[in-house]
Amino acid sequence: MADPSFDVVSKVDRQEVDNALNQAGKELATRFDFRNTGSGIEWSGEEAITISSDTEERAKAAIDVFKEKLIKRGISLKAFEVGEPALSGKTYKVTGSLVQGISSEKAKEISKAIRDEKLKGVQAQIQGDQLRVSGKKKDDLQAVIALLKSRDFGIALQFTNYR
Question: pTM of the full predicted structure?
Answer without folding.
Answer: 0.84
